[in-house]
Amino acid sequence: MSGGTLSRRIPKVAPGVVWGLRRLAICLMKANMPTFLILFSLLGADQIDPAGVAFFEKKIRPVLVEHCYRCHSVQAKMPKAGLHLDSRAGIRRGGESGPAIVPGKIDESLLIQALRHEELEMPPDRKLPERVIADFVAWVRNGAPDPRDHPTVRKAEGSWAAILAQRRTIWSLQPVAAAVPPWVGDAAWSLHPVDRFVKAALDDAGLQPAPQADRYALIRRLSFALTGLPPAPQEIEAFVQDRSATAYERLTDRLLASPHFGERWARHWMDVVRFAETYGHEWNWEVRGAWRYRDYLIRCWNQDLPYDQFVREQIAGDLLEAPRFNAVDKVNESLIGTAFYRFGEVGHDDCLEFREISLDVIDNQIDTLSKAFQATTVSCARCHDHKLDPVSTRDYYALSGILSSSRFVARTIDRPDANDGAKAELETLKQEIRRALAARWVEDVERASGYLRAAQSAPDDATVSGLQPERLKNWVAALQAFEKKPPPLEHPLHAWHALQSAPELAGAWAKLKAEYRQQQNVRASFNSEHFQTVADFRESGSPGSGHETGWRGEGFGWDAGFCRSGDFAVTYQGPQIVRAVFRAGMYTHRLSDRLNGALRSSFLPKDKKFLSVEVLGGGESALRTIYDNCHLGVNNVVLNSDRLQWITKPTSNEYADSNVYVALVTKFDNQSFPTYNTQHPVDHTKIRSFFGVTRAVLHDCEGPPRQDLTHLQRLFAEQEAPTTVKQWAARYGRVIRQAVDAWARDQASDDDVRWIEWLLTSKLLSNTIAPADQLGRLVTRYREIEGRIPPPKLINAMADLDRGFDVPLKVRGDPFQLGELVPRRFLEVLEGSDAGWNVSGSGRRELAELIASPGNPLTARVMVNRIWHHLFGAGIVRTPDDFGALGDRPSHPQLLDYLADQLVRQDWSLKQLIRSLVLTRTYRSASRVDVAARRLDPENRLLHHFPLRRLEAEALRDAMLASSGRLNRGVGGRSIDPYRVQERKDRRLFSGPLDGRGRRSLYTKVTLTEEPPFLTVFNLPEPKQTRGRRDVTSVPAQALTLLNDPFVNQQADVWAERMLADRREAVAARIEAMFLSALGRHPESFETARFEALVDRLSMFHQVPSVSVLTSRLVWRDVAHTMFNLKEFLYVR
Question: Whose CA is closest to 199, among 188, 191, 189?
Answer without folding.
Answer: 189
